[in-house]
Amino acid sequence: MTSNLSQILVLGGTGKTGRRVAEALRRSGVTPRVASRRSATRFDWTDRATWEPALTGMEAVYIVDSMGPEAPAEIADFSALAARTGVRRLVYLSGRPYGEIGGTWWMRIEEAVKASGLEWTILRPSWFAQNFTEELGMFGSLWDTGELALPTGNGREAFIDLEDLAEVAAVVLTRQGHAGRIYVLSGPRSLSFGDAVAELAEASGRPLRFVPISLDAHRAEFTAAGYPDHMVDDLHDLYEHISEERGAEPVDGVHEVLGRAARDFSDYVARTDFTRL
């Protein structure tokens, strides 16, 4: 079995998960190589000339994919290159819904990681608590208009705190004993989007509300905004996963890796600076 590793590449290292993984590695005494389109070590999935320089000299890689149908082929080629450059361990950020929906291009990415011939670990987190307040995207309306309209109904989700995800990733990147494992990660409590928005409203002192809408209404809105059909289809798979409560049951992946309970949604809310939103 491969020993503990210290030469770690973090893809998406300036993003929502990657920067936290890099910080968790630093706290553990490891100085990671942070790679992104905006970092000193440049990495871009669409520019293959950036791949090998980022990989050279590395022992383990935290992988965030390009979030598109081309990702399975990219991951297969990247993993082969990683093996040729001496990488020994891959840790791939997947998602809990992907494993439970199945049969999609997301699962083909996982299969490409498994087929790499390297040590691999797959992380399948629930929806991120920080989606409500960071890199807002489709959640931006919550703070712009006071309303968040999504086709999730009253379905509950066991939102995970990204600080937990980062600590888990740092452990499986550097320490032995996690090869060939898939860790499903969640928070300890299930909330509907309405419940989550209510907690945010109380903590921020702002009149926020969640508005359930139909899948058809959501499609019309996103199509009018110029989103491609495949992206809307993927989102609808994820929203149906929530509305059907297929990810509502908390799981113990965080405890399994870290030996402690996962942080509650209320912990994330208490740490949030609402003055910047």
Automatic annotation (TrEMBL):
<dbReference type="InterPro" id="IPR036291">
    <property type="entry name" value="NAD(P)-bd_dom_sf"/>
</dbReference>
<feature type="domain" description="NAD(P)-binding">
    <location>
        <begin position="12"/>
        <end position="133"/>
    </location>
</feature>
<dbReference type="InterPro" id="IPR051604">
    <property type="entry name" value="Ergot_Alk_Oxidoreductase"/>
</dbReference>
<protein>
    <submittedName>
        <fullName>NmrA family transcriptional regulator</fullName>
    </submittedName>
</protein>
<dbReference type="Pfam" id="PF13460">
    <property type="entry name" value="NAD_binding_10"/>
</dbReference>
<dbReference type="InterPro" id="IPR016040">
    <property type="entry name" value="NAD(P)-bd_dom"/>
</dbReference>
